[in-house]
Amino acid sequence: MDRTDSVSSDHEPVVTSNFQGRLLFVRNISGFWLLGLCNNFAYVVMLSAAHDILKQQGMPNTTSLMPTASFHQPEGGNHSNSSRYDCNPVSTAAVLLADILPTLLIKVAAPFFIHKCPYGFRVLLCVATATASFLVVAFSSTVWMSILGVIFASVSSGLGELSFLSLTVFFNRTVVGGWGSGTGGAGLAGSLLYSTLTQAGLSPQTTLMIMLVVPAVMAISYFFVLEFPPSFPQWWCREGVEGLPRDSSSEERRPLLAEDPAKAERNEEEERGDPGDLNCREKLVILRGLLKFIIPLAIVYFAEYFINQGLLELLFFPGYYLSHAEQYRWYQFSYQIGVFVSRSSIFCLKFRKVWIFSVLQCVNAGLLSVAVYYQFIPSAGVVFGIVAYEGLLGGAAYVNIFYFISKETGNREREFAMAAASVGDSFGIALSGLTAIPLHNYFCSL
Length: 446
Prior knowledge:
Residues 1-16, 56-81, 246-253 and 258-275 have low confidence and may be disordered. The protein is mostly helical. It has helices spanning 2-48, 50-55, 93-109, 119-138, 143-167, 175-199, 204-210, 213-225, 261-271, 280-311, 324-343, 355-374, 380-408, 411-421, 423-444. The protein is globular, with a radius of gyration of 23 Å.
């Protein structure tokens, strides 16, 4: 009897510990999934609404940004030019630039000083700017006021992405997969909700007001769902790398910077406890080592956003049961399906040769450019399939690149590396926006 009690007593703490460990794992994965969802949500909604925002430039008597009438334009609604395409006066890439340039500026500059701003304050700023984006766009009376709202969404998304990617270093590496899946879910949820609610008859203003719940969920996810380490610097500036989890799988890591024994030994010493912050020179050296990840990421995102914001609005099928604006919105949704599936795949599949995604995405961009010019695609349904495949490639590139950066960098450099590498996708997107505008003007002049 005593022995049985003893055995039960001995094992009970283990069971409890395992249960608590699993609960902690689920909480943190769920928290990062929700943060990824909320962080990219406003950004995605603004891109899904891009065609509708710019449609108003051809409607001089509008008193609101996107009245319900704009969602029920007759096919071929813009007849302001003699082009064979149904063109807006301005490419949707203009909205893309407003949605990405502030993000790009933040990602280029912030990694060098953002560690001086505590994480708690960063998150509050993200919540505030995301809320402002929905409110400004919803109540806008001009296109330029709407663009201001898009810029708020960009600031929130850019600051949030580099902050939350840096935040992953304080947790188990698997949270990178949760973050990636959540960002994919943002694309799916944002484009689906915007398309279905507006097509169901809700005004865009009402739709955007409903979406104000998203910044609130971001705050709840960060402050109440995540379980932070005891030493986590929530409201104060972190000094050094104290509190970062040690990497127990160093034998699997291919160091980002250590290419000779001397560098490898120096990195090992740093991981054992050098608490100093990285100086500017060290950060530049890390950036050079990150180029093998940043360049493929930039190429893949250049090609896919060149498609999304430069070509998709020109792939209009007049005989299809969806109007031009509806086709554009559902193209965006098909793309986001692919992104969500591939960004969630890191739990099952991992690809180290990320350059392959860049090559395949460039092939997609070339194919659809030719398709726009010669108009040989028979139906919008074919475009839906191609765009979903495009999303698969882009999402797989993103989540695999950040997974391997997390795996191949040392404790001291990882927080900066995760933030700095995020500039790759934004740089590619901004370049695609600049390229898509003259392309739009060329096709619309035909």
